[in-house]
Amino acid sequence: MTEDAARRKVVVLYLSRPDDSLHTHEGTTLVAVADAIARLKHYRFAGRWDESHRQSGCIFFVPDETLLAPEARQLGIGSSDDLLGGVVPYSFVRTKAITHSLVGGNAERPEGWSDVFAGRIRDVVLPGYTAFSVRDAEHAAAVLLTDGCVRVKKSLAAGGQGQQRFQTSAELTAALEKLPADELREYGLVLETDLADVAALSIG
After folding, report:
1. Can you spell out the DSSP letters for the chain?
2. Is the domain of 109 the same as that of 179?
3. Which domain holds residue 21?
């Protein structure tokens, strides 16, 4: 490979968040991963993606979140050889919403919804449901509250953020009134049995 050909092969960051997110722990880790991939592939690490990179001979993307299929196509991503991460057909698939089934056969669901994955992992996750409407969230909470408190998680949140613990249906109903309807309809809400006195073990 000539030096010029090597220079045209690049690894780039593809960010859904502002540049200052790179100064967080998560952002610093993402940069380190992208730089390591560039060295392993003998590519040049070119920083954040911009349109000028389309002139490169080969681009490997390191995104900060799972990409939607139309976005991946627009970037020219055609296979796992083009990125670190995944590509999904619907917004809710890249969230924790897929970890639980719906509360019933008549529950509201977005286009593309499938209970298959949730069914397969049911034995390794907490008892819970995913809801895409206030009605279904209240129904799910009523079922779960018979066994104790309920923890509700916003599907888009991560790192323990966007979570609330409820002891009664009335508390949940009050909280749901503050949740944007379009967010609930598109991404869903996760409701799980709340655990007390938990010791969390983490690697990394």
Report:
1. --HHHHHTEEEEEE-SS-GGGGGSHHHHHHHHHHHHHHHHHTPEEEEE--GGGGGSSEEEEEESSPEEHHHHHHHT--SGGGBSS-EESSGGGGSGGGGS--SSTTS---TT--SHHHHHHGGGS-SEEEESSHHHHHHHHHHHGGGS-EEEEETT--TT-SEEEESSHHHHHHHHTTS-HHHHHHH-EEEEE--SS-------
2. yes
3. 3-88
Do 28 and 64 sit in the same domain of this protein? yes
Enter the pTM of the model. 0.80
Instruction: Give, for all 204 residues of the chain, the pLDDT tens digit.
Output: 444 555 579 999 999 877 777 888 888 999 999 999 999 999 999 999 888 888 777 999 999 999 999 999 999 999 999 999 999 999 999 999 999 999 999 999 999 999 999 999 999 999 999 999 999 999 999 999 999 999 999 998 876 778 899 999 999 999 999 999 999 999 999 999 998 777 777 775
Residue 196 token pair = 């007390």
Identify which of 41, 39, 47, 50 has the alpha carbon closest to the alpha carbon of residue 75: 50
Domain termination site, one of 88, 118, 134:
88
